[in-house]
């Protein structure tokens, strides 16, 4: 008697060797592919961190004060942002004299640049008044002065008097505000000839930027104003009893 077989009753045979080898090869390739992707990701991540560090280093500024001695020797002064801001009287005197010359002098060939430099010493409110068309209107006046090359105003600094220190509030932070008088001589030249000489007194209130703010300034700012001297207010009058 014959016996019938169904598909399920068919005898099982082993997988052909070439198919087994192909499966191993594909598995190996998949592992290498995943490994390569991981390696590429790690390299890209390392490059990203390296580029970030490079850009930070390019923008990093280190400030170093050099103290010059009368005998010609010098000494470097370490600068750390967490330290209290320091300054020397001669540096302050020099910067205040520079401000008075740039702000109140008029040299037609350089008046625009001089006014730009003077702004580096002004706080936001003083700068706004200096530039405003309803204030001093510095841009228009600089253009007007530049057109008349034969007239100028020369400022000759004489001395500063630092007479008081008070505590002020800047952006919610208590800050030392210094009060100083800047004494200088103003000489007006018309057609190259001195016509009027007046002794002037500029009363200013000023402060120093915190070190953390000073470190954020660009190199052009630091070249002009290395200690971050900021004038908060000013009043110009003729010198009393002249």
UniProtKB/TrEMBL annotation:
<keyword id="KW-0812">Transmembrane</keyword>
<dbReference type="Pfam" id="PF04335">
    <property type="entry name" value="VirB8"/>
</dbReference>
<protein>
    <submittedName>
        <fullName>Hypothetical conjugal transfer protein</fullName>
    </submittedName>
</protein>
<dbReference type="InterPro" id="IPR032710">
    <property type="entry name" value="NTF2-like_dom_sf"/>
</dbReference>
<feature type="transmembrane region" description="Helical">
    <location>
        <begin position="32"/>
        <end position="54"/>
    </location>
</feature>
<dbReference type="GO" id="GO:0016020">
    <property type="term" value="C:membrane"/>
</dbReference>
<keyword id="KW-0472">Membrane</keyword>
<dbReference type="InterPro" id="IPR007430">
    <property type="entry name" value="VirB8"/>
</dbReference>
<keyword id="KW-1133">Transmembrane helix</keyword>
<feature type="region of interest" description="Disordered">
    <location>
        <begin position="1"/>
        <end position="20"/>
    </location>
</feature>
<keyword id="KW-0614">Plasmid</keyword>
<feature type="domain" description="Bacterial virulence protein VirB8">
    <location>
        <begin position="27"/>
        <end position="232"/>
    </location>
</feature>
């Amino acid at each position: 008697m014959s016996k019938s077989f169904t598909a399920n009753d068919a005898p099982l045979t082993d997988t052909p060797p070439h198919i087994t080898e192909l499966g191993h090869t594909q598995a190996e390739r998949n592992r290498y592919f995943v490994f390569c992707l991981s390696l590429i990701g790690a390299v890209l991540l390392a490059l990203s961190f390296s580029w970030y560090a490079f850009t930070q280093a390019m923008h990093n500024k280190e400030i170093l004060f050099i103290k010059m001695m009368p005998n010609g020797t010098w000494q470097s002064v370490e600068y750390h942002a967490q330290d209290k801001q320091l300054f020397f009287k001669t540096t302050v005197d020099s910067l205040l004299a520079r401000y008075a010359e740039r702000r109140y002098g008029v040299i037609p060939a350089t008046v625009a640049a001089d006014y730009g430099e003077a702004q580096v010493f002004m706080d936001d409110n003083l700068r706004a008044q200096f530039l405003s068309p309803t204030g001093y209107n510095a841009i228009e006046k600089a253009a007007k002065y530049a057109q008349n090359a034969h007239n100028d105003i020369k400022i000759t600094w004489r001395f500063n008097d630092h007479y008081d220190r008070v505590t002020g509030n800047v952006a919610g932070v208590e800050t030392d505000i210094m009060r100083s008088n800047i004494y200088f001589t103003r000489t007006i030249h018309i057609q190259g000839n001195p016509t009027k000489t007046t002794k002037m007194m500029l009363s200013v209130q000023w402060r120093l930027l915190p070190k953390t703010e000073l470190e954020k300034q660009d190199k052009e700012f630091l070249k002009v104003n290395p200690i971050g001297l900021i004038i908060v207010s000013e009043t110009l009058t003729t010198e009393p009893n002249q």
